[in-house]
Design brief:
The chain is mostly helical. The chain is about 60% helix and about 10% strand. The protein has helices at about 5-35, 45-50, 55-75, and strands at about 40, 80-85, 95. The protein is elongated and about 80 Å long. The longest helix is centred in the N-terminal third of the chain and has 31 residues, at about 5-35. About 0% of the residues are buried. Strands 2-1-3 form a 3-stranded parallel beta sheet, covered by helices on one side.
């Protein structure tokens, strides 16, 4: 048996795996395109950024108004807006940073 006969199954297997990965990626990309982009707002981090418990009540009220306005604007632009404290887990790249 020649050494090329042992290589053919490896090449075939590699082609089969690569095809499966390409088809899988296409399926995942197609499914993700059906879903809205997601924005996660961490209100606690935003409150901390203006002084936390020592924040002026007027500043807190203004902050929450800005959060509400931003949430509506993002929603109207097609984003799904979530509060951080309502999630069990999320990647850091999905969070709005102060």
């Amino acid at each position: 048996m020649s050494s090329s006969a042992g290589v053919l199954p490896i090449i075939g297997c590699t082609v089969l795996v690569a095809t499966g990965l390409a088809v899988g990626k296409h399926y995942v990309d197609r499914e993700l395109a059906k879903r809205p982009p997601v924005v996660v707002i961490d209100e606690l981090a935003l409150v901390r950024s203006i002084g936390g418990a020592r924040a002026n009540p007027t500043e807190l009220e203004a902050l929450y108004r800005r959060i509400d306005v931003s949430s509506v604007e993002l929603s109207e632009a097609g984003y799904l807006v979530l509060r951080r404290n309502a999630l069990h887990a999320t990647p850091a790249s999905a969070e709005v940073q102060p």
